[in-house]
Amino acid sequence: MTDRRWISIESITCELCGGKETKPFAKAQDLYSANVYAVVECAQCGLIYVNPRISNFEEIYRNQETMLKYFLEKVSSDLTAFKLPLSLIERFKPKGLVLDIGCGIGNFLLQLKEKGYECFGIELNKDCVRYAGEVRGLTIKEGRIEDIDFGEERFDLITILSTLEHMGHPVKVLSKVRSLLRDDGVVIISVPNVGYLSFRIGKALHIRTKTLDPTAHLFYFSPATLLKMGEKAGLKMIYHECGLVSSVRVKERVKDWIKRIVFPLTNRLEWGSTITMVLKETR
């Protein structure tokens, strides 16, 4: 939820290609007020983003008092939500030094720590940083990844989970991430999929959904635009998935059966709610 007592608005060019020409994608109402924002699609590269948008969103988030409560309420659900990235981490980086960007109060870092990883985090919200350090004993740096100096420290794994869509300049973020990787280091990103099947249906029927949250989600990625953004920052994709099964809430035995049959098709069609991508530095 965004504090509306002091907001300013800016217009931007395309973060991915620098283009100025756009076409309308949707009108999105703020989830917490009557304000309506334009979501546009770049006519050149297809990136979808909010424009004009709130310009001081980072400062608002840094001081937002509701975020600590929000992350505390997600402790239980995050145990399920992070199953996929955790399985990918164990597959691609079974051990090492991890940096989680946008870590909140460290719900995911605690899971990694239990697996034996050495964990660090970055979080913008000051209340979350304080709680993660004082209550949970985690090492969390407060601020933006672009501004933090890590000296000579490099990481085996960097995770950006449900965070990149909130950032004002994701290409700069990914470029900094690439510079922080050790040799053979990997990046795991998860973002909402703008091509999610139910969202496509809702958009076609003009049904308002929470998928478009224009004061929090500044960018709306497809696998293609996320891949292009990674490539622009010097990262190449080594794995990705975007099938429906990741978001299905059923018993694991049923889910396994569905995944064997349904997942290959829905992944090819990119119908899932979440894009999960593993990348490495381009060499």
Q: Assembly type of the shown chains?
A: single chain
From N to C, what is the helix and strand string? EEEEEHHHHEHEHEEHEHEHEHHE
Low-confidence stretches: none
Distance between the termini: 41 Å
Largest sheet: number of strands, sense, barrel closure: 7 strands, mixed
Work out the strand percent: 25-35%
Q: Structural class, judged by helices and strands? A: alpha/beta
User: How would the global form be characterised?
Assistant: globular
Count of alpha and pi helical runs:
11
Give the second-level CATH assignment, the architecture of one domain.
3-Layer(aba) Sandwich
In the CATH scheme, the class of one domain would be Alpha Beta
Instruction: Give the integer mean of the pLDDT values.
Output: 90
What does this entry look like structurally?
This protein is α/β, with parallel strands linked by helices and 283 residues long. Among the domains are: 95-192, Vaccinia Virus protein VP39 (Rossmann fold), CATH 3.40.50; 239-273, no CATH class. It contains 11 helices and 13 strands. The chain has helices at residues 57-62, 67-73, 75-81, 83-92, 107-114, 126-134, 170-179, 197-204, 223-232, 252-261, 263-269, and strands at residues 9-10, 22-29, 36-42, 48-50, 53-54, 97-101, 118-123, 140-142, 155-161, 181-192, 219-220, 235-241, 274-281. The strands form 3 sheets. The protein has a 7-stranded mixed sheet with strand order 8-7-6-9-10-13-12, sandwiched between helices. The longest helix is centred in the N-terminal third of the chain and has 10 residues, at 83-92. The chain is globular. The mean pLDDT is 90.
